[in-house]
Amino acid sequence: MADHRRCGVSGTTGAVLVVAAATITLLAGIGLGLQAADTPQTTARATGTHATPDAARSPESSTSTGSPTSTAPPPRPSASPGDGPGSAIVPGRVDRTSIHLVATYDVDVDYDYGTRRLVVDSRMTVTNESGRGVDRIELNTITAPLGDLRLRSVLVEGSPVEATVLDQTIVVPLGGILPDGATTTVRVRLRARLPQTLGGSNWLFTQAGGIVQASRWLPWIGRHRSFDRPNHGDPFFTAFSPRVVVRISTDRRLVIATPGARTAVDGLTQTFEASNIRDFPIVASPSFSIRERQVGDWTLRAFVLDGFPTPTVLDQATDALGRMSRLAGSYAYPTLTIAQTAGGYALEGPGMIWIPTGFRGDTLRWNVYHEIAHQWFYATVGSDGARDPFADEAVATFLGQVVSGTWRTTSCPERRLDLSIYRYSAACYFGQIYVHGASLLREVRRAMGRDAFWDAIRAYVDEHRFALGSTEALLLTLQEHTATNLRPILAPRFPSLYCVAPAPHAGSWRYCRHSSSVSGRVTRSRAIVRSSSGSSA
Fold it and tell me: In sequence order, which residues have a C-beta less than 8 Å from that of residue 169 and are 6 or more positions away?
């Protein structure tokens, strides 16, 4: 998940394409030890249910992207959400949210291809599985920085609340505390307009070249991350949803690619359903044709215009799915959707990849394999793309390069690999996280041996299937699958995850106090530290 970047590589020399980004205030913390995900956060307040420009920032936020203010008079809430009969919300305030909120989405979308206007009505059922009470939720949507977002209303259990737009996040107060294990409902109605250019980050949410390409348009349970960054890293951290239903009504016939299966068609309204996903990207065009191929139990479905190298892409996708499934565990979805986009960068979604117009040769091959590798490391195993990019990009790069045989090089110096995206430069983010990160895993594979390494990768994927993993969890799993001491290889590149002192005796773990990259809670965590003897756990 990623504007990428990822794929912003062309040619066989390993040259890095960079896109100029606005200057931002760099975060002071390192990637895995930044602001805890479940700690209090101060947010700006909007009037009524309408969005305002950011008046306050979390510590990691940068300059406002200018979310506009609605001029309509705000409705006055008739009651707090927790006042209704049978409400799970109880009075109180904890100033806390969590990534461990499980939501299902039932969504109606109206899209006018002629005017590029998007209207969304999303109804969420949200269950708190975080272990403690929460009193707000944070919804990620890039319609705020890119799409001239207007909030029409936000309701909790049917009552209006004062939602706030903070950068790319809609902060929704619950009007009380949702206890652990309890469930509530949230409804968000918004409108936005897609731009018509591919520059900057617009390619993530635009209508250009006759193609609609919209990533992260649907307000989605996540944690606030600053959209501005000095590179094309992924400023997103979203939760898995067990079920999403989206009905898309359009002003004309559009052929629509999504991660979901199309379950109904009623005139110009198409219904799609998906399970176990972290995003619901859409690519659509009135001129798309669909090409399919059956690969064992999987269906490859390509949405393309004339002139796209469809046979080559289907051949590469067939090879990638089969060989990656043997190395990292079976591909998790029944269908892989391949969508041609007008431009920008290649991109992954759950059960879906974007391939831009014009990719050929090694550039095409590298990107197809890389985005399919993200079906394991992003889609099947989630992570915090903003604060922990190694767990996503480096591992996907390594898997894609092993299977494709196309290896990138870089002139960028080696650097620690446990920083957030906000602390790598535009010139060297790709070289340091993607290229050097993959090279480090290659070294680990040599030290462990191929069989032990891939056994560990499959164990990591299996343990975190449709859940959140992290670099910390991955490196622990690698160490647990070998008697070889990996500390000399890993500690210099991940200083936040290793204790300075060696373990007190052979075969023991040293305990360090640090923040978990997954939950954000400060815990007594088993650090990835070994004694110099290299004894196995």
Answer: 138, 139, 140, 141, 144, 222, 224, 225
SS (H, E, C) 290-350: EEEEEECCEEEEEEECCCCCHHHHHHHHHHHHHHHHHHHCCCCCCEEEEEEECCCCCEEEC
CA distance 137 to 184: 11
Cβ(535)–Cβ(507) under 8 Å? Answer: yes
Q: In 10 A of CB 268, how many CB atoms?
A: 14
Distance between terminal CA atoms of the chain? 34
Annotate 57-108 with three-state secondary structure: CCCCCCCCCCCCCCCCCCCCCCCCHHHCCCCCCECCCCCCCCCCEEEEEEEE
State the CB neighbour count (10 A cutoff) for residue 11: 12
Q: Could you tell me the pTM of the whole model? A: 0.82
Starting at the edge strand found earlier in the chain, the sheet holding 269-274 runs 159-160, 150-156, 183-193, 117-128, 101-112, 244-250, 269-274, 261-266
* Residue 48 near residue 160 (C-beta atoms within 8 A): yes
Going by C-alpha positions, the residue among 140, 195, 237, 198 that lies closest to residue 354 is: 198
Structure token pair of residue 427 = 């010139």
Q: Are strands 244-250 and 101-112 parallel, antiparallel or unpaired?
A: parallel
Q: C-alpha angle with apex 458: 455 to 464, nearest 5 degrees?
A: 140
Q: What are phi and psi of 282, to 5 degrees?
A: -130, 135
Mean pLDDT of successive 10-residue stretches along the chain, which has 537 residues: 37 34 33 34 35 32 33 40 75 98 98 98 98 98 98 98 98 98 98 97 98 98 98 97 98 98 98 98 98 96 98 98 98 98 97 98 98 98 98 98 96 97 98 98 98 98 98 98 97 88 44 38 36 27
- Phi, psi of 473, deg, nearest 5: -65, -40
C-alpha 384/C-alpha 392 separation (Å) is 8
List, in order, residues 6 or more apart from 175 with CB less than 8 Å away: 80, 81, 82, 89, 156, 159, 161
Helix, strand, coil in percent for the chain, rounding step 5? 20, 30, 50
CA–CA distance, 480 with 65 (Å, rounded to integer): 44
Measured at the CA of 465, the angle between CA 171 and CA 34, to 5 degrees, comes to: 45
Q: How many whole angstroms separate alpha carbon 518 and alpha carbon 468?
A: 6
Class of residue 115 by CB neighbours under 10 A (exposed 0-12, middle 13-18, buried 19+): exposed
